[in-house]
Amino acid sequence: MKTGSISRRVFLKSSRAVAAGLVLSPSIVGQAQAATMKMKCSSSLPNDPKYANGRVYYDNLVKHLKGNGLGEQIEVTFFPDNQLGQEIDVINSVKLGVIDLMVSGSSISANLVPLVGTFDLGYLFSSFPQQTKAFDAGAAKPIEDALLKGANLRIISWAYNFGSRSVLAKKAVKGPEDLAGLKIRTLPNPVITECLRLMGAAATPLAFGEIYTALQAGVLDGLEHDPPTILASKFYETAKHYALTQHNFSPLATYFSETTFTRMDPKLREGFLDAAKKAAADTRSHGLEMEKEALKNLADKGVAIVECDKEAFRKRVLPQTDNFIKARPEAKPVVDAIRATQA
User: Fold this and answer.
1) What phi-psi label fits residue 123: left (phi over 0), alpha (psi between -120 and 50 degrees) or beta?
2) Given this structure, which CATH class describes domain 165-249+297-339?
3) Separation in Å, CA 71 to CA 55, 68, 74, 77, 275
4) Which of these CATH numbers, 1.20.1080.10, 3.40.605.10, 3.20.20.140, 3.40.190.170, describes 35-162+250-294?
5) Counting Cβ atoms within 10 Å, is residue 119 exposed (0-12), middle (13-18) or buried (19+)?
6) Pairwise CA distance, residues 58 & 83, whole Å
7) Distance CA 91, CA 327 (A)
8) What is the pLDDT of residues 87-137, one digit of tens each?
């Protein structure tokens, strides 16, 4: 039998390769545990750890993933400030599984599943705590089911936008007559647009990333949003009157791609979903405090906080809910469940 000799150079090279393999490759026993699931999380808001709900939620999610022992097994990378695209494009990417997570208001998904627009009806919620009470009683379940079935989107938690939506404008708005004709930015969402139109504004749908320059250029006279977002995005630099219309208490949704959920190791799901819900609870508490703080900071920056005739706005908007239910009878159980929890 013929045998071959191995040169010292070849032997050393082979030994190094084997040693490298032992160092770099996970052990057979720990192979499953060593695999890290990587996810992308998108938010349209700035990377502000205090006033931007997307960043606050992300920080809370990472904290609770670590608390659940998943810090090494699930790696979530955060992309704020529309880095992955405008919201309407991002939510379609989540639908397709290209992006895993998106933290945003419920309103953006109404473009995919119109029933979600129920949550955008003007003056439907009276406060954020009432919203949580309604959701705990099952008001959100039909919406969640419709999003999963119609858009491949799984809602894994509900939090709050950091304050009710009110109107920031370049002039004082105390009633519908003051709002008349003002070009007020709304989400590209027909229900919110109709709400602002009924309130008296020239409602102007526009992507979030275009608001600041549109205000600067005079294309817009104002926008409707919550105080911390106005503060974090520096919209107060271009408009100095904030009318507390409080026409919408918008839920903050954590959209999770069903495609990602399906490919997730079942052993990780329970801990991940638990972390998502705990992160939402922390984010809700934080949001309630930030609304108060942001209003004070806006006032300190020269913004006039205007107490307006909220009842006059509410009366103008009330027919919207009845008309919405006539067009979408499936919304009635959701509206009834929400109204049942109002004090």
Assistant:
1) left
2) alpha beta
3) 18, 8, 6, 12, 11
4) 3.40.190.170
5) buried
6) 15
7) 25
8) 999 999 999 999 999 999 998 999 899 999 999 999 999 999 999 999 999
